[in-house]
């Protein structure tokens, strides 16, 4: 049977890169979103709000797919609401598509907040020792990742398909209009500094500045998702997924700035969040976009200051172990500096940032 995928969130940083991967390898790809708008015209759009079960069921009625990839969530005011809303969304989706005659596998993308805790209790509990390993299990706090997993596991029991859970670290990759996108956010930040003369200073915590960390390239995550969904070793397993290298921001930061022709400012010794520093940057970006003929003048569609602040402001180390994937046969590697450099080149090519 030909491989037919349904990607939930096919316009985002994870889903968009996964769609490109699968299309290039001969898959048929359906993309689900509330307001579908995809980079690749070959993606077959499915419009649905997963919080509405009747609408979801109607949109997916008769759709026969072999694989489902869930890479979207809805941010709520509290973690209790995150759990309720995002758990229901996964349930509504799998109730609607779970009886597809040829459904084989459902993959869920979560992240390292599985170990670190949710945003409202970030690092507040007994964070496991690093490097994070799948065997360390769940934290004793509310976490919408756990709610999503539980819905996935229950549907798998009912319907008989296999599953996989994928836990990337901070994802670097091409996407516009994405709420969790450090790579594009830092490219915009560097551009604003270069165009205005502001110092390009690392905004995060001393721990992140000098400690070891790692990241996940969206293209590598796409390969990992396809591998787990089509490999016996990937069935009914949870996996961390990162590039495979480690680095310190005090080493990487000046290398990023060099790509923009500016010098890195001295580290201020404390976190200085971008969400506050860039609060008035919208009109400045609009002017930059007009001068350079850029494709996107709306800063809110490019920069996710709050999410970058959350990642770079962590007071604890975050390093991830990939042994489980390696032993199961996934051996891909991606150098993190190249993840950034490749992204910057594509953003320039597509006129998202100036050349």
From TrEMBL:
InterPro entries: NAD(P)-bd_dom_sf, PRISE-like_Rossmann-fold
Superkingdom field: Bacteria
Pfam families, per database record: PRISE
CDD domains referenced in this protein's UniProt entry, alphabetically: 5beta-POR_like_SDR_a (cd08948)
Chain ranges passing through the membrane: none
Residues forming coiled coils: none
Domain (PRISE-like Rossmann-fold): residue spans on this chain: 64-354
Name of the protein this chain belongs to: SDR family oxidoreductase
Lineage: Bacteria, Pseudomonadati, Pseudomonadota, Alphaproteobacteria, Rhodospirillales
